Amino acid sequence: MLDINGLSVHYGDTRVLSDISLRIDQAQIVCVLGPSGSGKSTLLRTIAGLETPTTGTVSWDGTDVTKAPVHSRRFGLMFQDHALFAHRDVIGNVSFGLRMLGHSQDVVESRARAALDRVGLGGFEQRHVHELSGGEQQRVALARSIAPEPRLLMLDEPFGSLDRELRERLVGELHEVLRSVGIATLFVTHDQDEAFALADKVVLLHDGTVEQQGTPQEVWLHPETEAAARFLGFSTFVDATVDNDVIKFPWGSQPFSGPRPTQPIRVAWRPDGLRFNPAGLISGVVSASTFRRDHFLVSVSTIHGNMNIGSGEPLAAGTTVQIAPDLDAALILPA
Amino acid sequence: MDGDRVAMNFSTRVGRQVLIAIPVLFLVIFFVWPVLSILRLGLAPEGALDLAPLLDVLNDATLWSVAWFTLWQAVLSTVITLVIALPGAYVLSRYRFRGRGLARALVTVPFVLPTVVVGAAFTSLGVSRSLTAILLAHVFFNYAIVVRTVGSLWSHIDDREQQAARVLGAGRVRTFVSITLPTLRPAIGAATAIVFLFCFTSFGVILILGGPGYATIETEIYRQTAQHLNLETAAVLSLFQLGAVIAALAVSNRMSGDRIALSTLRPADQNTLPVIGRRRIMLGVNLFVIALLIGLPMTQLVVRSFDGGLDGYRGLTRTTFGFAEPPISAVWTSLQYALIATVLAVFVGGSAAFALVRRRERAKGRLLNLLVMLPLGISAVTVGFGFLVTFDAAPFELRSSPAIIPIAHALIAIPFVVWLMVPVLTAINPRQREAAAVLGANPSRVWWEIDFPIGLRAALVAAGFAAAISLGEFGATLFIVRPDTVTLPVVIFRLLGRPGQEMYSQAMAASTLLMFLTAGSVLAIERLRSPHATVF
Question: Among A94, A213, B15, B373, which one has the highest count of C-beta atoms within 10 angstroms of its own C-beta?
Fold first, then answer.
């Protein structure tokens, strides 16, 4: 199992990763989720040995591999741009890692074919890389990574460049492949849907530091920091204070019976946690309505700041509205 | 584990040193040393510094006029080539029409055609012994350079920038001048520099098509050596030639140094335009120019070679007066030399290319780059003359050895090999090397699995080029060839210099043979050319 302890990486004077610690157990699928520029790729490259950490260690089963050369780590890495060998055909790509292990020709051949079958590309052996579609290239890259049976499989934005429909189908297929192979997997993405669909554990990365880690449900329902909350769709934030069984909002007090957080606090809602209600205590003026697939996102200017509310109907800009916050859907963060 | 790494580092380090040592050793012996010999002969023939030969040359009005003619014919040739070839580059790189591949192959053939064949071809058209003949031959030769260097960039240029300019109110001409030209500038600059250098150091064309009335520094070096046996003057002229070439190279380097960033490049195959409306006229005019300028001389050469039926070809198999062996035996000699020269050039140039890609940024790398590319500018005649005056004594008494000719050919071909291979090797996505390492390949293995096979493919392309260069090499060979084993271009030159219809038919027949031999190499290049090689 993989153990990362206090890992920091600098490019020159720029700190890219700061004090990262995380652990991946046997057959566990861990997803690092974060916006672009958060250091996700650098984390994978450092674990693979392609970048050198300034401080911290990478260990496998208790053995420190921080200084081991890339080729001796037996960690698989599927690159974001796939980095397929353009001068080799499909089978030449998939069999590469097996050849490096020194297996006999027969073993190399049969295992490479098995890996291709596993990703549903049986019969593509002699194809050239440039003849493949984006989705097929992605599968070849996956087959190439899993064929030599690495101790750890790392995937860098595996679906990044594909269109939505294909991506959704491949996420399902990847899940099956990973489960059937049963190796420890670390993959990074900026896409929450991918992360929550695949991961046993989600690690939120922001600005080179781990904001939070936990099961997808924990992380989705209970972000622990404002950065995590914002990344996971909370878009309305209000300062408040806790006083015994009530929360004092700028617009009045509301009874509250959750765990007692420290005071003062910051309360956050996703758009679906706020409702338009003529009896609502917050009044504001609509500044814009935008269509979001299954609802309209209405931006409202209030004296407490901007609020984003989900609505079944678009509202014209300039309309005066009343808003009722749903405290059950609220996220309470320390201020 | 640590022991492994140290051993690995040691072996890769040794490997890199060998990669550098091969080209350095070859170039020091066969390039730097001859140049130094010329320097000594021109400035200190008796061992002590003696400026008399230099002053003699400087005071010779005839030689000044030779230098002046060399310069202005090169400038004029370059300008005419650009004016004629730039529209051709556009049409061949951007228009989508049937026969495009054929047209592109056709314009490439002249680039590797031996100068004697070009001389023979224009003679067959009846335009010899004139300035027009020289200029036409130079355009014929260098059309391909402009089409390939400028065209390869043009084929990737996104028209949306031009369209934006048009939308913003710029006219066609204004758009071309302010948008298209600046984008193409690096390619046009590079093409101009190469064309100018080739015209400035042109030898065979001047010698055959100019006749005694037209002399350039190159032909003068040959005349001083072969006819007047005046080696000191020839050496001084070689030094002037060297200086001029280095100056031209430096200027072009300076000019193309400030590359502009290309905001958008599109894949060439998605960037072609259908031929409709006014483009039909544009296409027609350019295809007509290509047919007239490039197709006609080559066709006429073949036609004239059959003037007396097959007599021209039959004559090649007989020993004629003045030749030790039947001219046809030169084909065999040329092929043997070409094989050795190709192997040498690819081996030495390939090592240099691999070494350069690994250490481009470092000072050592820049030095190696300069050393490797310099022979590109140094004229073939200078190489031949340098070999003549250098390898006439122990320990390198090579003048009587047949090995000297393929070595000279290889020296001339090496810069082309490097020039073809380096872009391919630098285009390798570094992620591919990383992917190989992650999959378990150690550093030597990464090189062996990624860099080597990709480089090998480029080396095959380069081999075709090197073979064509060797087959057609004339300027250097003329200085060092032994009378009993002449190469095909030398045979053609001698046949052309003799009177009579019989000799003329034989010259045409031999030229036709040589044209098909070298064109064969070009076609091989076309088929093998890697999509990554955009320089040529």
Answer: A94
Are B77 and B135 in contact by the 8 Å Cβ rule? The answer is: yes
B-chain residues near A49 (CB < 8 A): 437
CB contact under 8 Å between A148 and B457, yes or no, is no
From chain B, pick out residues whose CB is under 8 angstroms from the CB of A74. Answer: 440
A48·B438 Cβ contact <8 A: yes
Q: Which residues of chain B lie closer than 8 angstroms to A101, CB-CB?
A: 440
Q: Report the chain A residue with the minimal C-alpha distance to residue B429.
A: A83
DSSP code per residue over A57-115:
EEEETTEE-TTS-GGGS-EEEE-TT----TTSBHHHHHTHHHHHTT--HHHHHHHHHHH
Distance from C-alpha of B230 to C-alpha of B221, rounded to nearest angstrom: 9
For the question of an ipTM over 0.90, the answer is no
Contacts of A53 (CB under 8 A, 6+ apart): A7, A8, A9, A17, A46, A66
Interacting residues of B308 by C-beta distance below 8 A, sequence separation 6+: B501, B502, B505
Kindly report, residue by residue over A112-125, the tens digit of the pLDDT: 999 999 888 889 99
Mutate to test the interface with A, among B12, B425, B431, B439 (most CBs of A within 10 A): B439
pLDDT tens string A249-298: 888 888 877 666 667 889 999 998 888 988 888 899 999 999 888 889 99
Domain B2-303+311-527 has CATH 1.10.3720.10: yes
A71–B449 CB contact, under 8 Å: no
Query: How is chain B split into domains, by residue range?
Result: 2-303+311-527
